[in-house]
Every structure is written in structure tokens, then in C-alpha cells.
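Hi R.,

Here's the chain you asked about this morning:
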Amino acid sequence: MMSEQPTSWAAPARAGELRAGEVEVWRLELRQPRRLIDLLFEQLSGDEQARARRFRRPRDFDAYVVTRGVLRQLLSAYLGRAGVSVAAQAVGLGRGRHGKPQLLADPVVGADAALEFSVSHSGDFALLAFGRSGALGVDVERLNTGRDIDLIVAHHFAPAEAAALREQGARSEDARCRLFYRYWTRKEAYLKALGVGMTVDLRSFAVGLEPGALLAESARDDAAQWRFYELNPDGRHFGAICVYGGEGTTYLRTMTATVSNSASVQLDL
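And here is the predicted structure, written out as C-alpha cells:
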């Protein structure tokens, strides 16, 4: 079953087999020793290394390298659980039409084409989600009280969401800010699951906040199939996942990934 708050981040011995309806989400701390970041950098593809070097801020460079390096190792683990042996460095990664990361078509990896994944990082954490039952998207945001919430709400929130924020703002500005992030991460997660970038008008749909909430104010025929769940890394970071599947069809496991001295992911504490 899925839980709302607090999110319990445990670590099993290894990545699961991911049967139909199962989703696993890993919480990853982005602050890692320099030696480990350097080792992870060497495990990236040439294109990924070039992209990393284009970041001007060291913190952005580190976040990208750590997230991408661990993504490769987890994908390798999931492929291995499905009987497809692929080293982390050899996992073929590309991007869809609107930038969504995806496994490249490959004679080997193609045998596990049902594997879906989504990645997001912000502040001190990254979230990495994996599943086999259809599209999914994950988003994480660090709390920023200086953000122009009014501007974003005016341009990207559905009427019901905007009304809820106005009501909350009359009580507490801090509560209003936190409510904003709960909505925003769900909306972003949905766009990532669709893989369409910002080509969808965010005002054309609304998201609920209860566990397993579905789309509202949406004209999509499959609106009832999209579900939202809260996944907060800690008290200052907000996270959410959107999964495709009807009510009662999704089982979620939440885990913590740690990085060893050899820059390999440890799947246990």
C-alpha cells in the first residue's frame, strides 16, 4: 500500500524484480565526497561528461554527475534482475522528443523495454523512480520562500488549485507556500510522466492531494488512470510521483541509495 506522510525511506538488499504494478523510488543525497564524484564522472558517457562540464556552478556539476552516475548503476541493477546483463557504463541512455530520459533501442536492452524510469533533483536530494506498469514521472523541489508563487499560480494553476491556495493564504503564508509545493511537484510529475515537457497547459488539469488522488478538470479520456502520491525526502524538500494505473493497482517501495568508496551504489544500509 502507499503511504502519505511521513515517507519512510528504507534500503533493501537489492533492486526489486519490479513486477507489474510495482514502483520503486530511491532517495539519493547529492552531497558526496569529491573523490566519489570524480569516480562517478568517469563512469558517464562522453556526451554526459560534456554536458556536466557546461554547468557553471560546481554544485550543479556535482548534482548532475551524482544523479546520472547512480541512475546508470540502478538501471544496470534492474536490467540484471530481468536477466539482461549490462554494465552501468554501457547502459544506453537518450532523450525523447521533449527531453524525457529513456533507454535507447538496443538488441540487448530492448528485451527489457517495459522498464520505465524518471529522475529529478533539487537542493540536497535526487529522486529516482522505476516501474514496469506504464508511464511514471517524479519531481522534487527544495522549499524556497522567496519564490514568486503568485506569478506561477496565475499562469499555471487550475481554478480549484488557485482557490485552495487563496484560502490557505488567509490563514498562514508559510502553510500557503508549502501547499504550493505539494501542488507544483504533482503537476510537474504528471508532465514528466506524459513526456511532453511544457507543451501542456498546466491550467487545463488539477491534481488532488490525498494518497492516490487522480486528475480533475481534465479533458483526457484516461484521466481516472493517473494517480499521485507524495514522496518528501525531508522537511525542506517536497516530492511527488505520478503513475499510470487504476486505483489499487500500484504498490510503492521507497528506499535510500548510498554510495560506497568505489562509487558503486550500495543497496543496503
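One quick note: The first strand starts at residue 22 and ends at 29.

Cheers,
M.
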